[in-house]
Specification:
two-stranded antiparallel ribbon, EC 4.3.99.3, alpha/beta, 12 strands, 4Fe-4S, 7 helices, ten-stranded mixed beta sheet, TIM Barrel, 4 iron, 4 sulfur cluster binding
Length: 247
């Protein structure tokens, strides 16, 4: 089999700061490129495909980076993961950008390693999701709301999101993450909540307040209560890695 190559922004060790696995030690592989342009994006450096070099941490959590020329081979990525893996590491987090744009690479990566794969996805590429869902252990699936301004055609985006989530639900552990903006209302949130409940009301849903604004606890509780009418597991979890000063 010919070895795949992919543009990668960075590979590093850190503590997962989002979702139901917040606090878990992971090795992060941040792929370049994204098919969306969300208003709150905090990884703008990873949006472009033409990043010339990938920075790779040499020692876990030490921020001692060297560089590799893009695109990276599967072997390059596996070697970097092996160097950063330690006894407390639990998963390889495939993030971005949007990692599903590199689905062929991820499939080959999974064939070359036994490390548990934790995918962080915007959930808008169902065909690519179908192609790798069986090699993913945990899928952290975003649902975009209208106020995120991720696409000019929100209805089509939402349909693709539900298809993507269903693919992962059929094959691996899934939880949902929804970014909460100050302007998010129960009316904008509930279509997403009801759609998840139609798949399985036991799927955990995380309401993640956007980090660029101060927390409004009453607002979050109002949204949490509304979601709780339909879902068995709703949590409010901010970005913990930013509170810890980590990548």
């Amino acid at each position: 089999m010919l070895q795949c190559y992919a543009p990668v922004d960075e590979i590093f060790s850190s503590i997962q700061g989002e979702g139901i696995y917040a606090g878990a030690h992971q090795v992060f592989v941040r792929f370049c490129g994204c098919n969306l342009n969300c208003s709150y994006c905090d990884t703008l450096q990873a949006l472009a495909m033409d990043v010339t070099h990938c920075r790779v941490e040499n020692t876990p959590l030490c921020r001692d980076f060297s560089t590799l020329k893009n695109p990276l081979s599967v072997e390059d990525v596996i070697n970097s993961i092996e160097r950063l893996w330690s006894s407390s590491t639990r998963h390889v987090s495939l993030t971005g950008g949007e990692p599903l744009l590199q689905s062929v690479f991820i499939k080959q990566l999974a064939e070359g390693t036994d490390y548990p794969l934790y995918l962080e996805t915007n959930s808008t590429l169902p065909f690519e999701a179908e192609s790798i869902a069986d090699v993913i252990d945990i899928a952290a699936c975003d649902i975009k709301l209208k106020e995120h301004h991720a696409s000019d055609n929100y209805a089509a985006l939402f349909d693709r999101t539900l298809e993507t989530i269903q693919e992962f639900y059929n094959n691996c552990e899934v939880f949902i993450k929804i970014i909460i903006l100050p302007e998010t209302t129960t009316d904008s949130l509930l279509p997403a909540v009801k759609a998840v409940a139609d798949i399985d009301s036991c799927i955990p849903v995380v309401l993640q307040p956007v980090s660029s604004h101060a927390l409004n606890t009453l607002h979050l509780i109002e949204l949490m209560d509304a979601a709780g009418e339909y879902l068995d597991c709703v949590r409010v979890i901010p970005q913990m890695h930013k509170l810890l000063g980590l990548l």
